[in-house]
Write a structure and sequence with these properties.
Two copies of one chain form a homodimer. Chain A contains nine helices and 14 strands. Chain A is an alpha/beta fold and about 260 residues long. In chain A, a hairpin with a 2-residue loop joins β2 and β3.
Amino acid sequence: MKTLNLPIKAVLIDLSGTLHIDDTAIPGAVDALKRLRKTNIPVKFVTNTTKESRRFLHERLVGLGFEIKPDEIWSSLWAARDLVASRELQPYLMLEDAAMEDFADLGKQEGEHEYNSVVIGLAPSMFDYDHLNKAFRLLLRGASLIAIHEARYYKRSDGLALGPGPFVKALEYAADCKSEVVGKPSPNFFKSALGDVDPKYAIMIGDDVRDDIGGAQKLGMQGILVQTGKYRPGDEDKISPPPCKVCPSFTHAVNMLLGELQKSE
Amino acid sequence: MKTLNLPIKAVLIDLSGTLHIDDTAIPGAVDALKRLRKTNIPVKFVTNTTKESRRFLHERLVGLGFEIKPDEIWSSLWAARDLVASRELQPYLMLEDAAMEDFADLGKQEGEHEYNSVVIGLAPSMFDYDHLNKAFRLLLRGASLIAIHEARYYKRSDGLALGPGPFVKALEYAADCKSEVVGKPSPNFFKSALGDVDPKYAIMIGDDVRDDIGGAQKLGMQGILVQTGKYRPGDEDKISPPPCKVCPSFTHAVNMLLGELQKSE
C-alpha cells in the first residue's frame, strides 16, 4: 500500500458502518475519534441520507458518545440544501416530512413562486403517479433535476426496498434529462465538504468502497477502507486505483494515521 | 424511392394516426381498406396499446366503418398476453382493469401460484411505491420483466403525462435487469404478427417513423410512412435506411400498392 501524503489537512469520516451501526457504536470508535481530535486536524462527517436532518444525525451521534458539532456533519441532504440556497432555487421537494427540516429556513412559499427545480430523495409517500407526473412536467418546462443520491435500494426490516435512484432514472428517461447527483460518490460532494483544503492532503475513511473510497479518490483524496459495516471480502479490488489503505476498523485507521504522523515529526 | 419487393404476402397497418384519429376515420381510409381487401393479401392491424382490449379496439374500428375481424388486430397488449400464454408464465400484471380483459382466460389465480414475471403497461393506479416495490422484489427473486412498450409519455387532455417507459426504467435500474419489450418497435412484435410470412414480402404502413417504419424495416419488412397522425415534416430523414415509400395518406399508400401490383401482372 501507498504511504500517505503529509501533512494531512482534513479527515472526512463516513457515519453508518464506519462509526456506528444503527444505534450501536463500532467498538473503540468513540475513543479513536477523541485521539484523532488531539491532532487538531479538521474533521467532517460525510453521509448519504435523504431523510435524516442534520439535527437528528447530530443527536444520534452524541447519544452514542461521539464528540461532534452539528456543523461538522455533511450530509447529502444538507448538501442539497446548500446547493438550493446558493443557486436561490425554488425547488419542488420530493422528500419525506422529516427531511424537510433542513430546508425550512430557505423561505420557500408554496404557490408564491414557480418551481424551477425538483429535489428528489427517498420519499415513498410522494412516489405515486400524480406526484411523479408533476415533477415530470416541471422538468419539461426546464426545471433542473437534483438527486440527493442514486441508491438502487436499501435494507428495510421487511427486506430490500426501492431507493431514490429508480425514481430519478424514471424522471430522467421521461423528460430526457440528466440529474445532478448531490451525495456520495459525486466528487462535488467531497469537494464541498473539504472547502478550501487541497484534496491531495485530505483523507476519507469509510466502509463503502465505491461510494466512499472511489468517489473521494476520484477527486484526488486518499481513501482508507474500513472492514466494518457493509464491507465484504474482496471489496478492495472493486475500484481502480485500489484504496490507499485498508484497515480492519475505524480504530485501526486512526492508529495507522497517528503512527504515520508521528514518524514524520 | 425503392420499388417494392413483389409478391406482397402480408400488409400490416397501424391504427391511430393511420386509419383514424380518436373517433374520426382518416378521409378515404375506409374505402381504401376495402380496395386493399380485394387483392386477398392478408392484412393485420398492429398497435401499441397497454389499456385497450382487442374487443374494445375492434368495436371502435367497426363503429368507424372499417371491415375488420377481431383476430386481425395485433396489439402490444395482446402480444404480451400471447407471450405469457406461450411461456405459461404466472405474471404480476401492472395493468389497469380495462386491460386485464385480454388476460382473463389465462387462468391466473391470485395466491395460488408464485409470480414468476412482471408485465407492465400504463397503469397509473399501480405506479405507487408499494406496488413498484412488490414488482422489484419479484425481479430480485428472478422474475422476468415484460414491458408492453416503453413510451416516455403520452398526450392526455390536460397535457403530457408519464408513459409506462419511465416505470420500466425504474425497475430495470433497481433490480439491475433488462426488460423484454413486447410492442413496437420491437422486431419480435412485427414477426409475431406476420407468423410464417417472410418479412421481405411484407409491408408495414404507419405514421410513426421510428416505432412503425424503423421497427418493421429492422426485421426486413418494407415500410410505407404516411403523412397523417403524428407525422411531422422531416420525419422520413430520422431513420436509416429511410422508409421504403412515403405517401400523403393511407389512401395514397393503398393506391400506390395497387398500382405496383397491376404493373407486375
